[in-house]
Amino acid sequence: MEGKITCLQGDGIGPEVMASAKQVLCVIGEKYGHTFHLHDADFGGIAIDTHGEPLPEATLQACLSSDAILLGAVGGPKWDTLAVRPEAGLLGLRKALGLFANIRPVYVHPAVAHLSPLKEEIVQDVDFVVVRELTGGIYFSEPKERTSEHATDTLTYTREEITRIVQHAFELARTRRKKVTSIDKANVMESSKLWREVANEVGANYPDIVLEHLLVDAAAMELIRRPSRFDVVVTENLFGDILSDEASMIAGSLGLLPSASHSLEGPSLYEPIHGSAPDIAGENKANPLAMLYSVSMMLRHSFLLEEEANDVERAISAVLAAGYRTGDLRGEATTTLFTEKVVQELAGVKEGV
Ligand SMILES: NC(=O)c1ccc[n+]([C@@H]2O[C@H](COP(=O)([O-])OP(=O)(O)OC[C@H]3O[C@@H](n4cnc5c(N)ncnc54)[C@H](O)[C@@H]3O)[C@@H](O)[C@H]2O)c1
Ligand SMILES: CC(C)[C@H](C(=O)O)[C@@H](O)C(=O)O
Ligand SMILES: [Mg+2]
């Protein structure tokens, strides 16, 4: 198999976790006889520095012409006061590629369940997926304006936008435990009232799936109280952003959660849910797992390489079981050491075959 992957390493720890991803893709390619054509493109803060904009046209074209896109993270203090920040490039890319469905699996690995700040008995059976709407809502709606005295953000959703993301969640639930939790603020917000109405209408076409509604404040509480009750969670853009960072602590670290973003047609984008972590950037401390799980999602969904994706996940499990962990999980392994162990584990299986 041959595939073109555009690699947007971005800023902060982005290049460090991207280096891990490339090593793992290289060994998977060698082991299974695939050729992954990896193309780097400038994106985020580094693109502002070199091209004066976070999403240069050449980067967008490279993404559009690839089979999949891998992204590290963008942003950092250096660019925080600019009128056009690196994050604007990320929103622009999501919009330009139509990546409306952001899939964020939350899985508690048994080897690290005891490292979650929550009690082990609360987190041990957790396995759910946040389906976050990614190209609408308050991130994009107009008007959006600011003067020194007044600032406005607008939260708009159309029936069409809600329908397609909720349908995506129901289809996903069919492959899982057949439960959808739709999260909104329908006791206050008009956009949420429409969201709930549409979720009910879509749900009527899926009699095999249980649909429940939760208000977002109660959902934030339930995620801590009994996270194992969730299977597929579907919600709007901003709620999904906040709840998924919260959910990462159920798993044990923000450095563990991957994501995939899909459009109706065209390449999908895979990225950790975390940011550029300026506080640890350049120190070889970043947990590469959110990125490596993003690679396994890419292998599975964009290249239909199920065995290879399973192999990456198996190798990660073996390295965790052997006791290697990065600092965010109270371990001492560096990014490069952890990656090396995963690569050795993958290569070792080849030798045994
Ligand atoms: N997709 C993206 O590109 C993305 C996502 C979120 C934030 N950001 C940007 O990143 C910058 C920093 O944001 P922030 O500090 O609020 O969030 P962050 O996710 O970068 O970091 C939050 C905390 O989690 C830790 N952390 C994150 N990823 C880790 C990893 N892989 N291993 C170990 N520890 C990890 C960091 O050290 C930090 O203490 C901002 O500019 C923000 O806009 C980008
Ligand atoms: C960097 C930022 C724009 C982004 C978001 O809010 O979507 C990030 O937090 C994420 O979760 O991918
Ligand atoms: Mg976020």
Automatic annotation (TrEMBL):
Required cofactor(s): Mn(2+); Mg(2+)
Site (Important for catalysis): Y139, K185
Cross-referenced SUPFAM superfamilies: Isocitrate/Isopropylmalate dehydrogenase-like
Annotated metabolic or biological route of this protein: Amino-acid biosynthesis; L-leucine biosynthesis; L-leucine from 3-methyl-2-oxobutanoate: step 3/4
Main location: cytoplasm
Positions annotated to bind NAD(+): G275, S276, A277, P278, D279, I280, A281, G282, E283, N284, K285, A286, N287
Alphabetical UniProt keywords: Amino-acid biosynthesis, Branched-chain amino acid biosynthesis, Cytoplasm, Leucine biosynthesis, Magnesium, Manganese, Metal-binding, NAD, Oxidoreductase
Domain of life, source organism: Bacteria
Domain Isopropylmalate dehydrogenase-like: 4-342
Matching Pfam families: Iso_dh
Record-annotated membrane-spanning stretches: none
UniProt binding sites for substrate: R94, R104, R132, D217
Catalytic activity, as annotated: (2R,3S)-3-isopropylmalate + NAD(+) = 4-methyl-2-oxopentanoate + CO2 + NADH
Similarity comment: family membership: Belongs to the isocitrate and isopropylmalate dehydrogenases family. LeuB type 1 subfamily.
Protein name: 3-isopropylmalate dehydrogenase
